[in-house]
Amino acid sequence: MNVLIIGSNGQIGQHVVRKIQDSNEHNAIAMVRKKEQMAQFEEQGAKTVLVDLEGSIDDIAGAAKSADAVVFTAGSGGHTGADKTMMIDLDGAIKSMEAAKQAGVKRFVIVSAIGVHHRDKWMSNAPYYSAAKYYADVWLEKSGLDYTIIRPGGLVNDPGTGKVKVAVDLERGQIPREDVASAIVASLDDVHTIGKAFDMIGGETPIEEALKTL
């Protein structure tokens, strides 16, 4: 399977590219917006495409034309304002879904945020972030794509444990970014995750086993 990773230069995205390239089942297509970001992925043997997520749907569809699945891990980051969050986390996500459909790619995995499907759990200090994630998820659910929506808890840079807790609703907790990446790759191999949206935090159940409980 050829997998286009949108947001490949982000912290989760870099883990996803590496794990896909280390696997025997898939090949990564790393989408980056700066030419200088290409070398690190090319060194891993990944195909790279130079496309700005704030560009056109046609440009993104061109990047997806040789893909069998799209993984959306892009985010505006914690140092930007509401405007950039809306353009990347919401509009960028929706454009990516439209581009996948245009390119004939059915499988779409997105990284959202824990609890955003409940307004009373939206982040009080950045409700626009929760809103962007929520409405991107809703759009994906109605897109007709074979989607998986992963809503991780607080992201940390600890080494992955390979074990998580998943459910439609969970209390907020932390999870290593590496484990989120592992869950993304595992979801690509598990048709049981198609049409599923779930919260995920660190836990005691091996990732592949946990996904089968959904």
Automatic annotation (TrEMBL):
Domain named NAD(P)-binding: residues: 7-190
CDD domains given in the database record: SDR_a5
Annotated Pfam families: NAD_binding_10
Gene3D superfamilies registered for this protein in UniProt: NAD(P)-binding Rossmann-like Domain
The organism's place on the tree of life at top rank: Bacteria
InterPro entries cross-referenced by the UniProt entry: NAD(P)-bd_dom (IPR016040), NAD(P)-bd_dom_sf (IPR036291)
Name used for this protein in its record: SDR family oxidoreductase
Originating species: Metabacillus arenae
